[in-house]
Amino acid sequence: MASRRRSRTGARLFAVYAAASLFPVIALGAVLMRGYHDDGLRHALDQGRAQAAVIEQMAIAPALRGADRSQGLSDGERERLRAATDLAIFRGSVFRLRLLGFDGHVSFSDDGDASGAVPVDDPAFRAAVHGAVDARFAASVPHSRALAIRVLQPVVAESNGRAIGVLEVYLPYDRIAAQVQADTRSAITRLALGLLGLYAVLAAISWWTTRSLRRHAAANEHQALHDPLTGLPNRELFRRTAEDELDRSRTGGRGALVLVDLDHFKEVNDTLGHHAGDELLCIVGDRLRESLRTDDTVARLGGDEFGLVLPGSGDREETVALLTRVRQELGQEVTLDGATLSMEASFGVCFYPEDADSVEGLLQHADAAMYHGKHGPTGVVVYEPAASRPAMEALVLQRELRLALDRDEFVLHYQPKLELRTGRVAGLEALVRWQHPTRGLLPPSEFLPVAERCELIEPLTGWVLAQALADSTAWTAHGHDWTVAVNVSARNLSSMDFVDTVRGLLRRADVPPDRLRLEVTETALAFDADLARQVVGALAGHGIAMSIDDFGIGFTGLSQLRTLDVAEIKIDRSFIAGLPDSEQDRAIVRSVIDLAHMLGCIVTAEGVESEAVAAWLREAGCDHGQGYLWMRPSRWTDVVGVERAAALGARTEARS
Ligand code: C2E
Ligand code: MG
Ligand code: MG
């Protein structure tokens, strides 16, 4: 496409060059031809002058020599003159010949007509009287259309060089003109050939120049439209290609636009260095190109983001199957600087023309789909209109969240975890809320997903940790030995730096590590299992206990827990709500409690809302309970009263 556009531009440039050089060549030709034409006329007059001189010297002057001028022309002279001029007139080499006196009267005429004297003020005649030869174009005879050259020339018949009259001859122009024309024609032919040659040289120069310009422009364009590292089309070319495809789809046909984002590329860069990162990007580019058709476009949009345009891929299922294969291909192991790793990537897919009528719209939708891919179990996600509708809202929220951190608009509420057997409060879980300036107190579900997406989750978790540790110092000072639990998200566990952050905060708050508990959901652990496992291991190694939150709804099997350093399992409230009536839930909860105990973990039931559920859990051997039964999340100072009431309840039940 680009080369076609380039050759069109090249041809246009050459045409402009050729036209521009044609113009001066034509102008030069016109000027030269005009010059040749004028030279031809001048030459004709010169010839006329020469002929008249010959007539005067060879015929007229000899016929008049030795005569007495005061008497006019004698009959003998007239006869000699007639004899000398008749042949020329007869042959047509002279149209008319007259001999004029200095007063303009006709003293001899070839046709014998003495009338038609020349006025003495005729400039040509006056010039001839004064010894000059005058030649100009005129009608051959008065009122005739045949052109002639009229020459007025003084007649010098005597050896003293004095003029005795003026000779007037009309010479036929056509003969002279034929000669002059023949000369001019051959000169013009030579000129035309010369100019043609010149034009050919100019055209060759312009072709050569435009070709080098074209090559230079092509090199520049390639540079401007390709990624220097991978050689793939860059974002601009990707956008142009997508635009062309979108245009084409308006007259029929469909296709898919895909965004591909590598997971955890940053870590590769950080741990193995930029050189390895660059190599990995090249490998990813190659693998994408090799696993797609030649008609498909693979572009690097920047960083670890790639874009694909798949013309003709209108069938959703087939496209997802294709991209799943491509994703697997991409996930094959690579060895970089001696380290073997496998790359995961998230694919966001949308289809044109149905999903959007502009490239920007398609990119936005594919991005929304890709984002869902990053946080879900499948790596290839197709855009669903409902999924990205809040995208604009998310942008506004993102900006507000940033401000909220600066303005300290977050607050922590606490919910106690109670020992079911004794009713004693074992620890408090910190649950963040946002005191929004206009929308009031917002629960985490309103802003956490956006914070996670725009990487604000890191500073937010930092704030929650610091605040929770400060509060825990306060309740310890009031004599409570409750632990403090803080929820962390998948993103926090995606970097080893988090371990240092937590340790630094503990040190600063002067809180021993065993007072802190970090809650992480199963989904977060499944997100990047290996790295998360390492981070959890490192935290546990520093004495910071980990809890698996919302256990049962995610992807972690109990067997997987064996390999994780986990101190507590919190059974998701969806299993607790159905207790004690649902036999299935009872079976599940019982087996989770037993297995968790076998693994040495404490079991906490989330979402305990009734005394019956609490009693069943107590009887099933569950260690801790948390729920509205005892307290909704609120200020930590409210927990004290709750503990007293719960302990009383537990004792009463134990007695009965
Ligand atoms: P979670 O960690 O599982 O927290 C328990 C959630 O269940 C809380 O919702 C709590 O209010 C609610 N809950 C407690 N007892 C009951 C009950 O008896 N019945 C019902 N229906 N619900 C109960 P909340 O505060 O809206 O938090 C929702 C989730 O947001 C939390 O689930 C946690 O995953 C996340 N979250 C909260 N604060 C933070 C935080 O600071 N950082 C991170 N990363 N996540 C947080
Ligand atoms: Mg929690
Ligand atoms: Mg939970």
CATH fold naming of the largest domain: TIM Barrel
Number of helices, counting only DSSP H or I runs of 4 residues or more: 21
Radius of gyration computed on alpha carbons: 55 Å
CATH superfamily of the largest domain: EAL domain
Spans of at least 5 consecutive residues with low confidence: none
Distance between the termini: 85 Å
How would you characterize the overall build of this protein?
The chain has 656 residues and is of the alpha/beta class. The protein has three domains: 2-178, 2-Layer Sandwich (Beta-Lactamase); 235-387, Reverse transcriptase/Diguanylate cyclase domain (Alpha-Beta Plaits); 398-649, EAL domain (TIM Barrel), CATH 3.20.20.450. It is 53% helix and 20% strand. The strands form four sheets. It has an eight-stranded mixed β-barrel, surrounded by four helices. The model has no long low-confidence stretch (mean pLDDT 85). Bound molecules: ligand C2E and magnesium ion (2 copies). One magnesium ion binds at residues 549-550, 570, 606.
